[in-house]
Amino acid sequence: MAASSPANVHAPARIDLDRCIHCGLCLYACPTFRELGLEMDSPRGRIYQMVQVAGGSAPVGPSYIEHIGLCLACRACESACPSGVSYGRLIEGARAQIEAQCHRALPVRLLRNFLFNHLVLSPALLSIAGVLIYIYQATGLQRLTRATGILKLFGKLGKLERLTPHAEWPFFFRHIGKTFPAEGQRRYKVGFLAGCIANVCFARLNEATVRVLQKNGCEVVVPDGQGCCGALHAHVGQLEKARELARRNIDVFLAGDYDVILNNAGGCGSTLKEYPELLANDPAYAEKARQFRARLMDVNEFLAGIELNPAMGRIDEMVTYQDSCHLAHGQKVRSAPRKLLGEVPGLKLREMRLSDQCCGSAGVYNIVQHEMAMAVLEKKMEDVNATGATLIAASNTGCMLQLEAGVRIHGHGQRVLHVIQILDEAYRKAR
Ligand code: SF4
Ligand code: SF4
Q1: Strand positions, DSSP E, 275-344
Q2: What's the CA gap between 384 and 352, in Å, rounded?
Q3: Domains in the chain: how many in total?
């Protein structure tokens, strides 16, 4: 079946598949190949399976779904590839193909529908979920269930509890629609994209981001009407929903006269930067998507590119930096976070081995492919622990949750903070 035939509109494009020259240079960059040693779970093997499906010699069946499903979509293979294979686009196409052609059991369909089409899109539902988690954590119930080991009775559900994010009350939703003035003379007007789940689980990170930008002469606007970037939807193959969300954010942010549009999560930023590709065939939005993209930056990238306010206090600690896959491999931003860490007085950066290997978070991967995610995390924590760092810096919210779980299970009490939170801490110490 041709990749462009109507039944196969959502599929890896032939032109992308043909770029692979089967050299295998990507194999050892791939966490699932390193873990399993199986060609079928390597980038080259997965591309081969996509080619077979595109050519009609293999079905979109259980084997295809299993091997495509086990991919972290971390895009480390893209960085390693000498042939310029756009693996991120291929895996999104393959997942869209599976989404369009495979029939899931009713409970799975209902759960996915609730998660992707209701929960992450609704501030009200996210707030309710956040309050429930907050009660569970603030009353000590979480500590109790973890200390007694009662969670073991709940099988996989009990294991997943280890990944429960902190609900950070008060939630960041209260700041949506507000404008925060620059400290001193205004140098930039910034539109800040606060995310969806981050409003509940990373409210303090979002507040720290606003403060650090204010310290650096930015007026920060958190425009009303913004919402989920669509990364979660794109990663599971729900490309139409991702497009709908992209259009909404584009309208909201192009309505403001921002010098720059910023976000603080590498995973979201990668999808935001790909809005022009996502909407390339939409005549009404293709140009708008390019205008949006032209003003969009990751907050690390922006701050590393301006003259930073140096009024910081000391943080006398050893830090190690975990690259966000979608910031490093997707957006090619590697030096900016390191540069910012280097600006903090007293802070010493010690690189871990394979810092740009995935930690196993990968959106909802650590929930749906829990065993593999935890195996990848264990290796990551060996590399983290070997540095002796007391602080783990990250640039993506999903990585932070996964690394926090890693510290609880395999670590030595290290703190896990976003690069921007470290800057914020340094600015606060200067007061
Ligand atoms: S995206 Fe990551 S897990 Fe998937 S094939 Fe590439 S390197 Fe392997
Ligand atoms: S994806 Fe790139 S590195 Fe991997 S086998 Fe194909 S051409 Fe080689």
Answers
A1: 296-298, 318-321
A2: 6
A3: 4
How many angstroms from the chain centroid is the CA of residue 38?
26
Mutate to test the pocket of ligand 1, among 50, 64, 74 (most ligand atoms within 8 A of CB): 74
For residues 298 and 266, the answer to whether their CB atoms sit within 8 Å is yes
Distance, CA 70 to ligand 1 centroid (Å)?
9
- In the structure encoding, which two tokens stand for residue 372, read together? 């593999």
pLDDT at 1: 32
Q: Which ligand is nearest to the CA of 83?
A: 2
Which of 280, 304, 328 delimits the end of a domain? 304
pLDDT tens across 300-340, in order? Answer: 999 999 999 999 999 999 999 999 999 999 999 999 999 99
45-84 per-position pLDDT tens digit: 999 999 999 999 999 999 999 999 999 999 999 999 999 9
- Whether 156 and 120 have beta carbons less than 8 Å apart is answered as no
Closest protein CA for atom 6 of ligand 2: 20
**pLDDT at position 353, please?**
97
What integer pLDDT is reported at residue 362 of this predicted model? 82
| 77 lies in the same domain as 124 | no
Does the pLDDT value for residue 246 go beyond 80? yes
- Residues near ligand 1 with C-beta < 6 Å? 29-32, 43, 46, 71-77, 87
CATH number for the domain spanning 340: value is 3.40.50
State residue 7's pLDDT score: 40
Whole domain around residue 57: which residue ranges?
Answer: 6-101
Quote the Cα angle for 48-54-60, to 5°.
Answer: 85
Separation of CA 4 and ligand 2 centre (Å): 23
